[in-house]
Amino acid sequence: MFEHLDAPMQDPILSLTVAFREDPRPEKIDLGIGVYRNSEGITPIMEAVRTAAIELAETQVTKSYVGLAGDEQFNRAMTDLLLADTAAYSRAAAIQTPGASGALRMLADLIAYSRPGATVWISNPSYVNHRPVMEAAGLTVREYTYFNTETKAVDEDAMLAQIESLGEQDVLLLHGCCHNPTGGDISIESWQRIAELTHERGFLPFVDIAYQGFGDGLMEDAAGLRVLADSVPELVIATSCSKNFGLYRERTGAAIVVGQTPEDSLKAKGHIQRMARATYTMPPDHGAALVSMILNREELKANWMKELASMNQRINGLREQLVVGFREASDSDRFDYFGEHRGMFSVTGLSPAQIEQLKQNHAIYVVSGGRVNVAGLTEKDIPQVVKAFLAVGA
Ligand code: PMP
């Protein structure tokens, strides 16, 4: 049955993690996989999550099935977090999914079912799994111009010019905030222009927001999405609790559909449930039960928001320290982009040869393509990273 299979491609990020783990050098630094780390280099369990988990263990009375849509209280809370007080709110229907990955796939399946032959436009570059997920659902994928590798900022004019040519068979996949991998986000004016173009051209906006609260704040990071939600007739959203609740392995996320009417959204949700039934049937409960408890309890929610804000400040603080460290060591402002980018990642423009030298000579692990995980650094790593980057000619 399987003898004719070719060797599968290794996931470049996960294989880098293995190589890092096996490296015996004590000074090694992992800038690869996208997890947040605190100043001790640990990806912590958030305090509100731990409190909720203890209470859940003591009070939960059954592990019986929940339902195809998962925890409806969780679904409402996730919709509130993104869409409260927008025009879209009353038309939105949400379904709990295994992470944002599950949401991406379910929404892709929904689009393929509802609009066979649709083309999904993703940014160049984009999250490494966007193309595989969309293609696995049978959708055609094309790329829109996004990042200017010279300025290390988004080329918003070129991006918008391309979006002007989209039509009703097209889906525009946007990163809600903290663009992965580049760290470059679009301005609120561009979100407004995209909302206008949605009306003019009839494409479907699809927002993937996996880092709400890791950029400029919980509400601030949803500002662009909320511009769309106030204006466009239809919208789909994939959201995640992996980063902002630190629930990575619990696989907690949601797919939200905003149709032209609440009835349309409910129909779409029903189809997602049907498609989920044929794949994983039901999402795992634990993470969503914790999030639901946290978001529906004032004290726990306040505690979570406080800790999230401090993680956010830490990331932006590390960005500032990189800017200062590079300015001092290189006598130039060419690394200032670290301070302009938002979220966990920045694309550095490092060549494959420089990435290899960083690994071989400096025990610093960077994924191919040159993305670095700023949120994986600790303060004491910064001088070593600055020195090594300059030594390889960055
Ligand atoms: N979308 C983007 C943009 C991501 O970076 C990621 C990975 N963190 C995901 C979706 C998938 O997230 P999850 O772990 O919740 O499935």
Task: Note the topology.
Blueprint: H1 12-22, E1 29-30, H2 47-59, H3 72-83, E2 92-97, H4 99-114, E3 119-124, H5 130-136, E4 140-145, E5 147-148, E6 153-154, H6 156-163, E7 170-175, H7 188-201, E8 204-209, H8 223-229, E9 235-240, E10 253-258, H9 262-277, H10 286-295, H11 298-330, H12 337-340, E11 345-347, H13 352-362, E12 364-365, E13 371-373, H14 382-391
Parallel strand pairs: 1-12, 3-4, 3-7, 7-8, 8-9
Antiparallel strand pairs: 2-10, 5-6, 9-10, 11-13
Explain how this protein is built.
The chain is α/β, with parallel strands linked by helices and 394 residues long. The chain folds into two domains: 12-44 and 312-391, Aspartate Aminotransferase, domain 1 (Alpha-Beta Complex), CATH 3.90.1150; 65-296, Aspartate Aminotransferase, domain 2 (3-Layer(aba) Sandwich), CATH 3.40.640.10. Helices cover 44% and strands 14% of the residues. It has helices spanning 12-22, 47-59, 72-83, 99-114, 130-136, 156-163, 188-201, 223-229, 262-277, 286-295, 298-330, 337-340, 352-362, 382-391; strands at 29-30, 92-97, 119-124, 140-145, 147-148, 153-154, 170-175, 204-209, 235-240, 253-258, 345-347, 364-365, 371-373. Strands 2-10-9-8-7-3-4 form a seven-stranded mixed β-sheet, with helices on both faces. Helix 7 (188-201) links the parallel strand 7 and strand 8 (204-209). Helix 4 (99-114) crosses helix 5 (130-136), helix 4 (99-114) crosses helix 9 and helix 11 (298-330) crosses helix 14 (382-391). The longest helix is centred in the C-terminal third of the chain and has 33 residues, at 298-330. The radius of gyration is 21 Å and the shape is globular. The N and C termini lie far apart (48 Å). The relative contact order is 0.17. It binds 4'-deoxy-4'-aminopyridoxal-5'-phosphate (PMP). 4'-deoxy-4'-aminopyridoxal-5'-phosphate binds at residues 34, 99-101, 127, 175, 180, 208, 210, 240, 242, 253. InterPro entries: Aminotransferase_I/II_large (IPR004839), Asp_trans (IPR000796), PyrdxlP-dep_Trfase (IPR015424), PyrdxlP-dep_Trfase_major (IPR015421), PyrdxlP-dep_Trfase_small (IPR015422). Residues 27-389 form the Aminotransferase class I/classII large domain. GO terms for molecular function: identical protein binding; L-aspartate:2-oxoglutarate aminotransferase activity; L-tyrosine-2-oxoglutarate transaminase activity; pyridoxal phosphate binding. It comes from Saccharospirillum salsuginis. Its cofactor is pyridoxal 5'-phosphate.
